[in-house]
Amino acid sequence: MKSYISTWPLLAPELPFPRRLAILGSTGSIGVNALRVVARHRELFQVAALAGGQNAKRLAEQAGEFRPAVLAVLDDATATELRALLPAGYTPSILVGPEAYVTVATLPETDLVLSAIVGAAGFLPTLAAAEAGKRIALANKESLVLGGLLIRQACQRSGAVILPVDSEHNALFQALCGHADSNGAELHKLILTASGGPFRGRDAAFLAAVTPAQALNHPNWSMGAKISVDSASLMNKGLEVIEACHLYGLPVARVDVLVHPQSIVHSLAEYVDGSQLAHLGVPDMRIPIAHCLCFPRRVGLGMPRLDLAQVGGLTFERADEGLFPCLRLAKEAFAASPSHPAVLNAANEVAVELFLNGDIGFLDIPRLIEAELDRHTPLGEDASAPQLLEVDAETRLHLRRAAST
Ligand code: NAD
Ligand code: MG
User: Of 266, 263, 285, which is closest to residue 277 (Cα–Cα)?
Assistant: First the structure.
């Protein structure tokens, strides 16, 4: 499969303004930040559809402000609650259930889709948006981990392009724009930075006893619960290595990870001549979100500017894969087969949920994931979406049973 760089946004036709936007996961951390960007630049967007999960109150507030014609929620109870909360005289269509997200992702009246649902639930809507040729601002990294090949193939068929919202991949996008040759031969490697999370420098005895509240307390970023735990275990960086391999068409051996506790350098691209190009900024997701939603335009965001003198020092160190095995597991999964990452992702989602519920310890997360990876019989490159979703479902079921015995 050709490198993604060959089909990337610079080569795509300019998308006119105002852009007709659908947000999948508008009530989450990314969705809320995206609407803050939109609120500041109303003239650039027409919000066509908002899809939340079960948070009717927040979705009703957003819908009242932006008045999209289409809303989507997960279940009937949330839809009923939502309807009662909407302002008088405003009657959008309210779609219900998992299929509703695929509909929202492919509405003919939208051209830009922000994929910001958390977890594997984002996969089918993102794949559908890719098949429909949409411009996709992608936050939902799990969809690339689960079925990155299928999404890339769909983009190549339809002309859809993906703009990465994830701060590291957005940083790389900016460091590659206008620099990398179209076949990627001048690129030596990518370097993803990681904050190291709340447990950087701790030992195994400490990690064995950490609580969900400690894991949720990220030093630099304010994010949803699942990605916060992933950051603490370094699984987030593991998922991001896989995400980078798909987005930029590189093998896992050409994607390095560097711990950078200040979270100011968001990642680096290294070229064959030894030049490393980095992207720097304050750790605030509105920067990469706005870059994706407005690309190639840049807009003001009204936030404190980066003051490097005040930051003082930027430090870098290697990741400790012995203490944080999730990073190693993710790299091994990507190298093992096209379906191992689906196992990794599903096992991680369930393990994180069990940890947050207090059912397992923090160090059980990598242990349970590794056991699922070890027992998996791999599928080939031709694995279909239903087959990968079956792997996902079977892994979830098996891990839950294994964790309860
Ligand atoms: P979040 O938990 O704050 O929000 C998740 C959103 O998805 C909510 O709108 C929720 O209603 C919706 N949702 C949850 N389950 C759903 C389901 N089964 N079906 C439909 N909708 C569902 O999560 P977040 O922190 O905003 O993260 C969203 C995605 O963005 C994740 O994939 C995450 O890895 C990625 N991401 C987040 C950040 C960040 O700063 N928060 C940074 C980089 C990447
Ligand atoms: Mg990230």
Answer: 266
